[in-house]
């Protein structure tokens, strides 16, 4: 690589702007650490004159990113738009074909088109790096690709979304409802003001699971419809009952090899409030890796915000400037596996089910009879009457049962007119 | 680097043997991950015929390591003898001068001669890698050098020695004395059977602190006599009293910039039993990094045993095979700083002091008067009589005070004939 490195940043939202400022500020430090001079020669966003947190040099601005990619000499491009397809994909494609290294925090793009783009990068002998796409505050992707490279990983799981972890923590601490706490999260910049859906419904964590399992198991990115549930249906009531049971609700992303098959999932879990994962609170992310010979290793760090994201983007930059070209997923495209999928139907857990029912004789027994029919044994029942409204809340904790069984039960409960709304289901994780 | 990589392992103790076996077993995997074929062409140890856990190929054995370094074509050498000077240093020097890349888990060598050897490696354009010297189960050095490379780190601290953490945990869990638990640790292979001193007196953690702070602050390895205390004086009594106070004793290694000066220390600390660090138990290591913009990041993993160590050694191997030559400490020797040292005398903490005294009138007041003289205010006193022997245990928790103050107090206590033995001092960490 030349002594002078030309850089472009496409997308000047919260992350792009923070990155721009960091690059300007740390210019000298980067030169000391790499022996190369970096220079931002192109920036692009929809709107040149939008009010931004940091002043940008408008002389290098172009509202057309392809103008920058095609007409200026660029060595490394940051894609900071963040769409799973469309312009984000086109920019990355075009840059790679033009022999420009690409760095992106765009998890949805990598989870969807990562295999294709990685092959394109390999074929064009450039880097495609995406450390910032998962848990910015800790170098989890480098850790898998390099630090733990010869370990046989069996399982990788954890808290992958800072927004939902903040909401669940804050509901418990403040005793406030999901809706109120969501507004708080938005006000603090932890949740998207306009559309927080992709955090709340688990999709953000889902993309990260796809990326992590591709790396951990040297696998192609799975196309499987993995189990995905968010936290939208968690009520303060559930958090309070969990507390009574010395449990805590966490949205976990899970990737695991079960019987030589790949299992991936994102769903709320009840975990012990004395466990490590039960005590990772606020916007923190935590990832647990089970491997051989390392045993259990944990990485924990801030998961949300432009600071940790920029930290990861800059580490990718320095890694590219310091080293030769590397494979985006650690190993060559042709050596990556196609592991068969574990059937979600066989996924098995103890379950927490909360029923809101009419307080009539026979309601509880109609529920327990359904469980008995599917041979699901019950570990615990907590019934709380709401005398004034003639209603009751019934929480049932079951022994381990499979997804197929619980799905059948739920379809029967749906027909039960005394069950007022769809029961809230939370899986107990690592619980016997 | 050539397509075929020749490897030598010098030292065939627990780690050397485990590594040898891993290299043989993972030969094919390494070829897939790097595109290069590795071959072990030389191994060396004092005794060819010693009974070892893994079978070694005796055809490539030489009892003289220099015979291997000088007469065989070696690309990468593993130094697994582990001495801070002598033969370990000579082997590494000779290998580097012969343009051989060196990988070592030898923390005492790096802490003592790391600057000299790193410069030698730079001058000879080869790598010197030592990821395995600190917390084998997590890639902490790579994380600082690469993953968090542009962060401004203010502090790095944690549990750096698995042996002592196992002993402290096991004393609490089993209610057994230091001596009994130490024997248990030796039987399980967590502590050296012949000479566990370097773990117990804090020296092992001390070497790791020196390495971590050199990396975290882009500093030369400090030559300062940092504060170093081990766990040899911790008694079951202290662990029980800590428990009553909802505290737990942990041996922490600390490196921090205080008022633009470098502070380094290793000593037992009382930490809250509801804190993260208070719940890192058994042989686990945990390192907490405070940086900007990442905030707080944590890495936790197994710290003892040949498995995690080999994992780190192999990651260094693959990193060397995959990439160009890198600087051992991330940046060039000439750019590393010489930060001035913080004066240990000004280090300030709340203190736990346990006195064993003759149960006579006036003893407590003579102790508290001494504290008053040095303006050390007392937060709490717990006096437990031992009527049968006419003795008592007095535990005093102080408010924050400096090392110089407490040193003066201790010298006065030394002259007090009613204080039967030297008081046990444990600093309360992050405690106001």
Explain how this protein is built.
Two copies of one chain form a homodimer. Chain A is of the alpha/beta class and 432 residues long. Chain A has three domains: 4-104, NAD(P)-binding Rossmann-like Domain (Rossmann fold, 3-Layer(aba) Sandwich); 147-303, Dihydrodipicolinate Reductase, domain 2, CATH 3.30.360; 344-428, Alpha-Beta Plaits (2-Layer Sandwich). Chain A is 36% helix and 25% strand. Chain A has 14 helices and 16 strands. Chain A has helices at residues 14-25, 27-34, 65-71, 86-97, 107-124, 140-147, 162-174, 178-187, 197-200, 203-216, 236-244, 306-322, 363-373, 403-415; strands at 4-10, 37-44, 76-79, 101-103, 128-129, 152-159, 227-228, 247-258, 261-272, 284-292, 295-302, 348-358, 378-386, 391-398, 401-402, 424-428. In chain A, helix 7 (162-174) crosses helix 8. The first copy, chain A, starts with a strand and ends with a strand. The model of chain A has no long low-confidence stretch (mean pLDDT 95). Chains A and B meet through helix 2, helix 6, strand 11 and helix 12 of A and helix 2, helix 6, strand 11 and helix 12 of B. Strand 11 of chain A pairs antiparallel with strand 11 (295-302) of chain B, so a sheet runs across the interface.
